[in-house]
Amino acid sequence: MRILYTASEALPYAASGGLGDVAGSLPAALCKAGHDCRVVLPLYKSISAEKRAELKFLMNFTVDVGWRKQYCGVFEGQANGVTYYLLDNEYYFARDGLYGFYDDCERFVFLSRAVLELISHIDWKPQVINCNDWQTALVPVYYQTYYKFQYGYDNIKTVFTIHNIQYQGKYGMDVLSEVMGIPMYHAKLLEYDGCINMMKGAFETADKITTVSPSYAWEILDPWYSHGLDRSLSGKQYKLCGFLNGIDTTLYNPEKDPDIPAHFSAKNISGKKKCRDELCKELGLSSGDDPVIGIITRFVSHKGIDLIKYVFEDMLSLGCRFAVLGSGEKIYEDFFKEMAWRRPDKVSVTLGFNPSLAHRIYAGADMFLMPSQSEPCGLAQMISMRYGTMPIVRETGGLRDSVRDAGGENGNGFTFKTYNAHDMLNAVNRACDYYRNTADWENLVKAAMKNDYSWDSSAKLYIGLYRELAGEED
Question: What pTM was computed for the model?
Answer without folding.
Answer: 0.91
